[in-house]
From TrEMBL:
A matching Pfam family: SurA_N_2
Compartments (UniProt record): Cell inner membrane
Similarity comment: Belongs to the PpiD chaperone family.
Keyword hit for Cell inner membrane: yes
All residue ranges annotated as the PpiC domain in the record: 344-446
Main location per the UniProt record: membrane
GO cellular component: plasma membrane
Domain of life: Bacteria
Protein name: Periplasmic chaperone PpiD
Keyword Transmembrane helix on entry: yes
Topology with respect to the bilayer: Single-pass type II membrane protein
Entry GO MF terms: peptidyl-prolyl cis-trans isomerase activity
């Protein structure tokens, strides 16, 4: 007991402090590392009108978009991935912005409506497209019903999942159609307005005028201050709206092969050329594909289709001769003449394909396919209708709509045996050819421009920079970056050394490509993570090292004066010139007074129409055109000075001429409504986006 009491007396304060520290550390741990921690990174990539998009959900949307693009484009590259990101983001915005509109208006699609889109009298175009008969081009209702009936038998669940996806797509399309229909019903151009438009455009005017060009006053005599310029911007904010962006200046240190690199490539090529000189044609394909960066093309090509440097020399080479080396873009090339033939440069053929069995399981066994093609050949030679046999028997769906016809040239990418028959047989020849696809019955219909065609082999190697060359370029870039760490010295060094500075302007947060560099996402991210005036370290891109300086940081809103100074100065200076000219003219009693006061001649203009703001002798001057039809002046008075685009004008109407007239108000209304309806399809979603509150944080994740 005394020991415990001693601990209490001696260490009470220490124990209390330890307990307090433990409690505080626990609270801090939860604050900084818990689920709702202060430093926990947000996983929200964006918001629209309060609805969040989580990173994992966005990634799945991107994958779905990539899968769709892969079906159309094959392999997915960085460009397609970027397109998929934008497609997924647009879908997120569209789904949430439009769904809010649908809900506000009480729009929905019922199960009965979806069912009717499948089985009703007028099925959805989405359904008719899915179940169109290839032969007739018409909707195959029986096939659709058969597919729907078989869904319950699919144990994998894939067909049911596909049906649900199709139903969802149809529902989205239907509710979108309803929404657009409601919006479009609001487009109306009343008859009275059409009649007023016809009346306004029913006459033309002939005028006399005096023009005082703004150019008659030297810019140097008109001073403008920053306060005046900023005042103009604030009064015209809509004209100077900008999105968030960055501007960088940069130097590119390109990794260019040196003379030593070229010599090394030449040595490799010359060693291989010794074998090229003597190798047989039987082994040439394997040799070229093993040693050259240009694969062997085992076919003939006409001179007109040959797209290589030195082609005039190449086509005259003797068989077996080698020419080179020569440059073809970044390749050093030796070319060898393999063979020469006289061939047409274009052949029209038609064929019937009986496919043989392959790894995918399609086609007939070889013996049955051969028997069928032989019987078809006998029928054709006996006078049967070739097109009818194509329709009945061919397995080539691509040429079936054209009666089995193809145009073949020496450079066309066809199966070799097929192409050899088409090019080497004469007009009217009919025969059976076997290819990897099966048995073809081919008939040569027409041949054009028979002439020389050549088969060439190319031994080619690119001149690539060596490691030493690459290191030298990097060292130059690194030295520049280390010695120029602020914008002022960056620019000063460029000027002193005469370096080629490049500019990348209007970089958006999700940009991936910079013109002149290519894929440069790292540089864009750096520009958004840095302060104005910062100089980057060395960025490594494809055969290029880049050092950049962040010169402009633009926030979303109104453009700062420094970004728009030239255009604003021109406009403000023009206004000041107009004020000087108007002050000189005052209130003129006649055009002669204006001409005398300004030392400018009187001029005339005819055929001015109220609906056409362009005047041949003036250019685009809508204010002048409007003034010509001002009833307050008519033909009796001269106008007040008019501040136009190119100068200040004073005019007097000499006469009005009646127009042709005869326009139908209903036609004018319909034309206007149609133009508005066409514009709605492209602009409606853009307007809805502007009215929405959108937060895009994707640049923090990519």
């Amino acid at each position: 007991m005394s020991v415990i009491q001693k601990i209490r007396d001696k260490y009470a304060v220490v124990i209390v402090v330890v307990i307090c520290l433990a409690i505080v550390s626990f609270l801090l741990q939860d604050a900084f590392f818990g689920k709702n921690s202060l430093i926990r990174r947000s996983t929200t990539v964006g918001k629209v009108n309060g609805t969040e998009l989580e990173f994992t959900e966005y990634q799945q949307m991107i994958k779905n978009a990539e899968d769709r693009m892969r079906m159309s484009n094959g392999a997915v590259n960085e460009q397609i991935t970027q397109q998929a990101r934008e497609s997924a983001w647009t879908k997120f915005l569209s789904d949430n912005i439009l769904s809010a509109q649908y809900e506000k208006l009480g729009l929905a699609v019922t199960e009965e409506e979806i069912k009717d889109q499948f089985t009703g009298k007028n099925p959805s175009p989405i359904i008719t497209q899915q179940f169109t008969d290839e032969k007739t081009g018409k909707f195959d209702r029986a096939r659709m019903q058969q597919v729907l009936a078989s869904i319950s038998q699919d144990k994998t669940g894939q067909m049911r999942a596909g049906l649900l996806q199709l139903e969802e797509y149809i529902a989205q399309s239907r509710v979108s159609e309803k929404y657009l229909s409601l919006i479009k019903q609001a487009v109306y151009y009343p008859k009275w307005l059409a009649e007023k438009q016809i009346q306004d455009n029913a006459q033309t005017a002939s005028i006399s005028y005096v023009s005082v060009p703004y150019a008659s006053i030297a810019d140097s005599t008109v001073k403008v201050s920053d306060s005046e310029l900023n005042s103009f911007i604030n009064s015209h904010k809509e004209l100077f709206k900008v999105e968030e962006s960055r501007k960088v200046d940069y130097l590119a240190f390109n990794v260019i092969p040196s003379a030593a690199d070229t010599a090394a490539t030449l040595k490799v090529l010359m060693d291989a050329k010794q074998e090229l000189d003597t190798i047989s044609n039987n082994d040439i394909a394997a040799f070229i594909n093993r040693n050259s960066d240009l694969p062997y093309y085992d076919s003939y090509i006409s001179k007109s289709a040959l797209m290589v440097p030195q082609k005039d020399t190449l086509v005259t080479l003797p068989v077996g001769a080698v020419f080179g080396p020569y440059y073809d873009n970044n390749l050093i090339v030796y070319a060898k003449m393999i063979d020469r033939k006289t061939l047409p440069d274009s052949v029209k053929v038609r064929h019937i394909l009986v496919a043989t069995q392959n790894q995918q399981g399609g086609g007939l066994p070889d013996s049955l396919a051969k028997a069928r093609i032989d019987s078809i050949e006998r029928a054709v030679k006996g006078g049967a209708d070739f097109k009818a046999l194509v329709e009945q028997y061919t397995d080539d769906v691509r040429s079936k709509p054209t009666g089995g016809e193809y145009d073949v040239t020496p450079s066309t990418d066809f199966l070799k045996e097929f192409k050899d028959f088409a090019l080497e047989k004469g007009k009217g020849a009919i025969g059976v050819v076997k290819t990897a696809a099966g048995y073809h019955l081919i008939e040569v219909l027409e041949q054009k421009n028979i002439g020389s065609a050549v088969k060439l082999a190319y031994l080619a190697k690119p001149v690539s920079p060596s490691r030493e060359t690459d290191s030298k370029a990097y060292a130059e870039a690194n030295e520049f970056a280390s010695k120029n760490r602020d914008a002022k010295t960056f620019e000063k060094t460029i000027q002193e050394k005469g370096l080629n500075k490049r500019i990348a302007d209007n970089l958006r947060p999700m940009d991936f490509v910079i013109p002149g560099i290519g894929q440069a996402r790292e540089l864009v991210r750096w520009a958004y993570d840095s302060d104005k005036g910062a100089v980057s370290n060395v960025f490594t891109f494809d055969n290029t090292y880049v050092v950049a300086v962040l010169t402009t940081v633009r926030a979303e809103g109104t453009a700062p004066l420094e970004d728009v100074r030239p255009s604003v100065e021109a406009e403000v200076r023009k206004q000041k010139k107009a004020a000087q000219i108007i002050e000189k003219i005052k209130s003129p009693a006649s055009l002669a007074d204006v001409s005398k006061a300004t030392n400018q001649p009187e001029q005339k203009a005819d055929g001015i129409g109220f609906g056409t703001p362009f005047v041949a002798s003036m250019g685009f001057e809508p204010r002048v055109v409007g003034a010509a039809f001002n009833k307050a002046w008519g033909t009796a008075k001269v106008s007040a000075p008019i501040e136009g685009n190119a100068g200040v004008y004073v005019l007097k109407v000499d006469s009005y001429q009646p127009g042709q007239g005869g326009q139908d108000p209903a036609s004018v209304s319909r034309a206007y409504e149609q133009s508005m309806l066409s514009a709605l399809d492209g602009q409606l979603f853009t307007v809805l986006k502007k009215l929405s509150k959108i937060e895009d944080n994707r640049s923090k994740f990519f």
